[in-house]
# Entry
Amino acid sequence: MFARGKYSLAICDRCGLRCLYTSLRKQTINKMVTNTKVCPDCLDKDSERWDLSRVRVNDPEALREPRPDNDDDGTTTPLDYPYTP
# Structure
């Protein structure tokens, strides 16, 4: 069993200032709790932009059966009208 520490003082790992032991919180970075205990002034809120990396996005870039334009002379003509010189 451990003491509660409601009258104890502790030192913040980030700024080095003395504060109440019960007010220290563990810092969370990228949804992972670190071993760093910081005071309420130094506590950074975990950013929501890290949540975007956990979302799976289906963004295919290639076609399954592509139909490329294969002209013999290397020139292309629009399909709407024939080329007349």
Notes: The beta strands are 9-11, 18-20, 25-29, 32-38.
